[in-house]
Amino acid sequence: MANESRPCPCDIGDKFDYGGRGQEVQVGHIKAYVCKPSASTDKAVIVIHDIFGWQLPNTRYIADMLTTNGYIAICPDFFVGQEAWKPSNDWATFNDWVKTRDAGKIDKEVDVVLKYLKDQCGAKKIGVIGFCWGGAAVQHLMLKNPHLKTGVSLYGVISRFEDKHSLLHPTFFIFAEKDDVIPLEQVTLLEQKLKQNCKVDYEVKIYPGQTHGFVHRKREDINPQDKPYIEEGRRDMINWLNKYL
């Protein structure tokens, strides 16, 4: 099982020194980071952050990458003003901390963001991606929200969604082979359940030798052996969005 004393080993040591190309805006009752491509488009992607929150440069880097691929990208503060997890926090307090930030209770915020994307940005086709905590949120939305076209869940903690597998939309699941949080037997079980219950397209992919957070966390320049898998994960994510948006 996952190391209970440290239930989410997102390595903040891999934090990018990155400013971002987009801007912060107020969307209803929440703040959000928005980046738009130079050419007009009706395709948008909601980016759901991990436990380190909406201002993490790594997550904004991925949002900007989506924009360079032609998408409007928005990364809202799904903690709604509550403090993000900090590397200096005591991991013994993590379970209490995360109870007040439920990845399955973001529907109100998603509705506000969808309205903004449609009314202010002209978006008609909208997908969602999410990392870790946000990956679990993607799974929730793919089971529930009729207004999204597709989703990519990156190392989303699947123990929260053990009994729900009837996805509404095509969903791509990215997992790391050596993830301390998500044991491979959980991934295998997820695949079995999806095979039995899922009526839409899905894919579950495990990336060899990788650890939790590898797609948006690892610095390609300091992990040369991981670089091909980081790039492959990002490419797979973009290709999935391209296919279904």
UniProtKB/TrEMBL annotation:
Cross-referenced Gene3D superfamilies: alpha/beta hydrolase (3.40.50.1820)
Domain Dienelactone hydrolase: residue ranges: 30-245
GO MF: hydrolase activity
A cellular component annotation (GO) from this entry: cytosol
Keywords: Cytoplasm
Principal place of residence: cytoplasm
Domain of life the protein comes from: Eukaryota
Entry's localization field: Cytoplasm, Cytosol
Coiled coil start-end: none
InterPro entries per the UniProt record, alphabetical: AB_hydrolase_fold, CMBL, Dienelactn_hydro
Family as reported in the entry's similarity comment: Belongs to the dienelactone hydrolase family.
PANTHER family recorded: CARBOXYMETHYLENEBUTENOLIDASE HOMOLOG
Name listed for the protein in its UniProt record: Carboxymethylenebutenolidase homolog
Species of the source: Cyanoderma ruficeps (rufous-capped babbler)
